[in-house]
Amino acid sequence: SPDLKFEVTTVLNTTPYLIYFDPSGAVKTANLPIWSQVITEQKQFFYEVAGSEMAGKEAFGYFFNGFYLPHELAHALQDEMEGNVPGSYENEYFANVVAMLWWKKHGNQAQLDQCYESAKTMLKNLKSPVPSGVSPQEYLRTNYEQASSDPYVYGYIQFAQFIMIYEDTTLPAFDEFVGSYLKK
Question: What's 67's DSSP letter?
């Protein structure tokens, strides 16, 4: 939309949250991590769930220096359109759909395929944190802060969403999806 104007600066800022959108400052930022600055405990998480040191480092790169940048920019779009949107399953799902469709639009299917294979491996090595009888949406809605600070919990939610969206053949193209969102 030529009428939509929002500015987001991408910055190197490795924190335990890894990659995130921060609307709170004078300049809104998409904060990106770099592997050499990731804390040891998080590196161990990636090694464990991806199956090896090499696979863990690659999975980190596929997602946190690739797929999740347009995901965070989708959160910036939400912020511009709706104001400060709290973390929720639905907002993460929206951002993951936007990122998936963006990567497809730009012909990056090979990179999505790598993410998909990596996500499937990692999901096999993670246990669902969602209690029986509770939907993932309700679980994340009521436990977002706690869940987002635990890589085993948040990783499960994010990688499960990635797989679900990757396998969804009913999604429209990027321009149609984002265009519909902008018309709301």
Answer: I
Distances 166 to 97, 125, 145, 177 between C-alpha atoms, Å:
9, 19, 26, 15
For residue 22, what is the DSSP state? E
Query: d(Cα 3, Cα 136) in Å, to the nearest integer?
Result: 36
> Do the beta carbons of residue 62 and residue 41 sit within 8 Å?
no
Mean pLDDT, consecutive 10-residue stretches, the chain (184 aa), reads: 78 95 93 97 98 98 96 95 88 97 97 98 97 95 92 96 98 97 90
Query: Would the pTM count as exceeding 0.90?
Result: yes
CA distances from 158 to 4, 152, 155, 175 (A): 28, 10, 5, 23
- The enclosing H or E element of 150 equals none
What's the token pair of residue 35? 């592997």
